Amino acid sequence: MRDRLRVGLIGVGHRGRAHLATLAGLEELFDLVAICDPSARNAETAARHCQATVYADPLELFGSARLDVAIIATPPESHHGLAGLAARHGVHLLIETPLAPTRAMMDYIENAAARAGVKVEVGENSWRQPVHRLNRAALDAGLIGRPLRATCFYEMGGHPDMFYHPSNLLRYYGGAAAAGTEVRAFEIRSQVDLLLDDSGRPVNPEVWSQAFLAFPNGVYGINTQVSTWSGPLRRSHPRSITVEGTGGLLVGGRRAVNALHRLEHQREVIYPLKVDVRERDGRHVPTRYSYETDPRVEWANPCADWPIPYGEATFGVEDDVARADELSSLYKAVTSGMPVVYGIADARQDQELSIAINESARLGGQPVTLPLGSETPWERAQHDAFRSKWGCDPLGEPGTVAGTNFGARGSS
After folding, report:
1. N or C: which end of the chain has fewer CB within 10 A?
2. Residue among 12, 17, 54 nearest 33 (CA)
3. Is the dihedral of CA 379, 198, 130, 264 positive or negative?
4. Which candidate, 351, 306, 347, places its Cα nearest to that of 325?
C-alpha cells in the first residue's frame, strides 16, 4: 500500500469540481480530507460524497487540517496569497493556471516555496492532453520535417487579457524557451449583440487579439483569440493548433479533426488520430493514442489503470488524462523527491509571454522582447485593481492577502 497524501481542495468552481472527479480515481495516492470555499453550500455539496471536512476560511484550513498537499483552484488573483499561506505551513501545492497574473505575484509564490522547501506543480493541462503529447512525439520523430510555425486559435472567455494556454502550446511545439522571443500583438474591441458566458455574465465588448511570436530558434507562433468563445455563435467551434513543418503538418485540439498530414511522393497523405480504448464500469478508458505512420508513433496513457471516472467532469476525457498526470507528478515529487513535471519556471515563461502580448498590444503592435524589464502597465493595473477591490497590499503578508480576497470570491 502506498503512502497516501492528505489533500485539501481550495475552491469548488468548475476547475475544483473537475479535481474532485479525478481525485475519486486516485484514492490510492490521495486522501481528500478537506474542502475549502467561502460558500458553505458549495463546499458541503462538494463534500457530500467524501469524508472531507468543510472549511470557509483558509487560515483555519491550514491551521487545523494537517495537509500534505493543497490544490488551489480559485481565481488567479488569489493564487499567490493562498500559496504563501500554504508554504508557511509546509504544504506542497498544485496551483491552477495561471500560476499568478503578474511577475511580482509569481515571485511571491516562488520565494515562499523556496523558503519552505515545498513542491509546486502547476495545472497547465494544454500540453498535457494526449493529442498534444502524441503530436509532439511525431514532431520529435521528424514525421513532418523541420518545424516552421505553429498557428493557434484559442478562446479565453473569463480572462480575455490572459494568454497562458496558447502561450504554453506555442512554446511547447516551438521547442523554445521564452527568453529571446520577440512578441508583436494587436487587439480590437467591438460592441456586439448581447452574449452571455457560461456563468450568465454579459460579454461586451468582444475582445479579438492576434499575437505573433518569433522564437529564438527560428520557429514562429501565431495566436488568434476571441473573448466570446462561450457564446452561442462560437461554442461549438474548435479550439485548435496546427503545426507546420517542411514535410507535413499536425492538427490537434478540442473539437478539431486531429490528424497528421504528410507529403509523400508529392501528394498529401492523411493519417487520422487513432485512440485505443477499453471498457471499465461502463466508461471508455483511453489507453493509447497513435498515428499509423511508418515509423508508427504512439503515446500511452500512464494513468489508464487508475479508476478515474473519465468523462464525468465537464472538460472532457483528454482533460481528465491531463489532470491525472499532473496529480501523479506532484505525488511522485512529494514522496520520492523527484522534480515536478511542470513547475514554477515553466509556468512563469508562459505567463510572461502572456504579459508581453498585452504590452505589445498596448503599444499598437510594437515588438516586445523577453525577458521583460520593469513592471508593465498591465501588471501595474492588476496590482492597483487588487488594492482597490480588497483594500490591502497585493504583495503583503500571506495571511492578510489570502484571508481578505478569499472571503468574497473563492471558486474559479
Report:
1. N
2. 54
3. negative
4. 306
Distance, in Å, from the CA atom of 330 to the CA atom of 60, rounded to the nearest integer, reads 24
Full strand arrangement of the beta sheet holding 5-10: 53-55, 30-36, 5-10, 69-72, 92-96, 120-123
Q: Which amino acid is at 145?
A: G
Tens of pLDDT, residues 24-62: 999 999 999 999 999 989 999 999 888 899 999 999 999
How far is Cα 404 from Cα 402, in angstroms, rounded to an integer? 6
C-alpha span between 9 and 7 (Å, rounded) = 7
Nearest-5° angle of CA 157, CA 159, CA 164? 105
Select the CATH number that applies to the domain covering 5-118 from these four: 3.40.50.720, 1.20.1250.20, 1.10.10.60, 3.55.10.10.
Answer: 3.40.50.720
Q: How far is CA 184 from the centre of its chain?
A: 23
Q: Looking at the domain that runs over 130-310, which CATH code has it been given? A: 3.30.360
Number of neighbours of residue 314 by Cβ within 10 angstroms: 12
The domain locations on the chain are 5-118, 130-310
Please write the tens of the pLDDT for every residue from 218-231.
Answer: 999 999 988 877 66
Which residue is associated with the grid cell 479565453? Answer: 156
| Inter-CA distances, 160 with 139, 156, 213, 387, Å | 30, 5, 18, 21
Residue 85: Cβ-neighbour burial (10 angstroms; 0-12, 13-18, 19+): buried
Q: Are the CB atoms for 106 and 83 separated by under 8 Å?
A: no
End-to-end CA distance of the chain: 34
Half-sphere exposure of 313 (CA within 13 A, CB side): 27
Q: How far apart are CA 337 and CA 117, in angstroms?
A: 11
143-177 tens-digit pLDDT:
999 999 999 997 665 566 789 999 999 999 999 99
In terms of Cβ atoms closer than 10 Å to its own Cβ (0-12, 13-18, 19+), residue 358 is buried
